[in-house]
Amino acid sequence: MTAAIDRLTQAFNHALHHAFGLSWTNAEPLVVAAKNPDHGDYQCNAALGLAKTLKQAPRAIASQLLDHLPPDLGDLCDPPTLAGPGFINLRLHSRYLATELQQRYGDDRLGIAPIAHPQRVVVDFSSPNIAKEMHVGHLRSTIIGDSIARILEFLGHEVLRLNHVGDWGTQFGMLITYLREVHPDALTQADALDLGDLVAFYKKAKQRFDGDPQFQAQARDAVVRLQQGEEDSRQAWQLLCNQSRREFQILYDRLNINLTERGESFYNPFLEAVVTDLKARGLLEEDEGAQCVFLEGFSNREGKPQPLIIQKSNGGYNYATTDLAAVRYRITQDHAQRLIYITDAGQSNHFAQFFQVAQRAGWVPDTVELAHVPFGLVQGEDGKKLKTRSGDTIRLRDLLDEAWLRADSDLYGVVQAQDWTDVASAVFGIDDWETAAAALPGEQPLGDKVHLLQTSLTEALQRQVPGWLQDPATVPPVAQPTLEHLRQTLDQRWSQSHDRQARDFQTILQDSQTIGHSAVKYADLSQNRTSNYVFSYDKMLSLQGNTAPYMLYAYVRVQGISRKGGVDFQHWQDTGATVRLILEEDLELALAKHLLQLETVVQAVAQDLLPNRLCQYLFELSQKFNQFYDRCPILKAEEPQRTSRLLLADLTARTLKLGLSLLGISVLERM
Ligand code: ARG
């Protein structure tokens, strides 16, 4: 409805000019959205502000404005009304709303026009560090970054999704040295080598490093050789990166995230130029042997300007140096006009600082925007840092698995604990749990031991299933008959229940995976990113409230209603036939107006990069639909109302689907 407010603004400007010879220069827009929907959709409050200048009563001014409005507004809004001391209330005409919506129905983009002047945008997101933990902060960056990229892409911008992985730095000396120690022949069998848990590998390497000065010396030597480009060291480094990459990719695949890797190492050849060019601009100063830029607006404890170290006294470079080289590269080589960086708020100073240096160096033309998009912490339900029950950091894969399995048991209740136990007993060849458990060492009661054995084996088994689902060829022969048995049991269970379609095991597990992953994404995106958020499986998987399951369910329901109506809108759309919308009831009008807000909301998110606004919009949309559906019969309505309302349902479903897709969430057709 951007068009509506633009037309109204023009109309009032016209009136101002013709009535008083004025044009509007006030900071507040001439026409604004109405605060209270009872008073209409928009209002013009100009008369109040003009009273002093014109030396007239505001009501009198307002009424002259009304007299001078252009006559062709009739198709846009009802006759404007004068209220209170001089407000002018404007209510959009239902015919106008109907026409606008009718146009949406024939448009796959639902009225969101591709941007007139597309930009080249770099979105720098996810960006984990090689051989280190990819933690929930990286997950947040991944989810938020992907959504922002999707929205910008949808609007027609050219987006470069960059994964600025931490693949360079002194830690590689230690890792390479340790790799040589434990796998002397690593390089010759690089393809076959599986270092397993790289995080554990990192920890062990660190232990070696901390405990042995000789190892430390070797590690330092290895860094130097790596930086000099020595072939063996480079290969070892490459091998470590590849192992990490494989791990990261599993996660990106599961979350359906597309990224181009361009790690820190990529900018190595450009680091020296950062130093020379800053020097040439007279920005570099030496401080305790290091080359620094003294920052404006940042001071240290003694109140002196804080330095940003560009090159250390030993000649090494910093995180910030790489980012400076990257900014230049992205502007000069990628021709980016907007650079968006998505990291936790803890890095805000880092970004403010190197942005400043890049700007002072003259590397950022006026036409280029640099934006850090910060987000808050992910906390456990205890308000502290998110951890596993045993106090370890959570592996992201485990986190997604857990969301998935809980989605299954919460929403479908299909695969029950007993089912898993049955499968486990077959897969692990256990006929009698008590006998098996009795063999476990320890003094606890037998019941506890049985429980322990069952939970650990079923958990171990459940971890396998995502892999099996993706690639059925990998199901071990021993598990095949039991999985098959489970599948049959479930099929039976489904076909016995009347209200739901029978679906097979695989579909259910896949659907619950979609729901679980969507829940994790949506929980993150629906919060204002700048605040911390509490990670709670129970909340994110709840069918009540602003959650993914609620939204997915809303879609299924609306879609179901519109499907039951038996009107093939796709066909109408393809043949270019028009549907007549009749908007009479207040709730119909409210839904129609909300549907028309999609473009404004998406554009706002592209501007302020707050995807939670889109979540809120979609949540309100499903609520408005529910209110409408409660009061206005659809399937039982008479024609032409029936088709008109079915179209509203269809547009609602399509809006939900498109909106969710911009959040990186795909809908289910059944639930
Ligand atoms: N690797 C960094 C980290 O894990 C994030 C990098 C963000 N991007 C950037 N251009 N600095 O904290």
Describe what you observe in this structure.
By secondary structure, the protein is α/β, with parallel strands linked by helices. Among the domains are: 2-92, 2-Layer Sandwich (Gyrase A, domain 2); 267-376, HUPs (Rossmann fold, 3-Layer(aba) Sandwich); 396-514, no CATH class; 540-662, Isoleucyl-tRNA Synthetase, Domain 1 (Orthogonal Bundle). It has 25 helices and 14 strands. It has a 5-stranded parallel beta sheet, with helices on both faces. Helix 5 (136-154) links the parallel strand 5 and strand 6 (158-163). The mean pLDDT is 89. The site of arginine has 9 residues, from strand 11.
Q: What is the strand and helix layout of this fold?
A:
Layout: H1 2-20, E1 32-33, E2 42-44, H2 46-54, H3 58-67, E3 81-83, E4 87-90, H4 94-105, E5 120-124, H5 136-154, E6 158-163, H6 171-182, H7 198-211, H8 213-227, H9 231-255, E7 260-261, H10 271-280, E8 285-287, E9 290-299, E10 305-311, H11 319-332, E11 338-344, H12 348-360, E12 369-375, E13 378-379, H13 396-412, H14 417-427, H15 433-438, H16 446-470, H17 480-496, H18 505-525, E14 533-534, H19 537-540, H20 548-564, H21 569-575, H22 586-595, H23 598-608, H24 612-631, H25 641-662
Parallel strand pairs: 5-6, 5-11, 6-7, 11-12, 13-14
Antiparallel strand pairs: 1-2, 2-4, 3-4, 8-9, 9-10
The site of arginine has 9 residues, from strand 11.
Domain DALR anticodon binding: 551-671
Subunit structure: Monomer.
Motif ('HIGH' region): 128-138
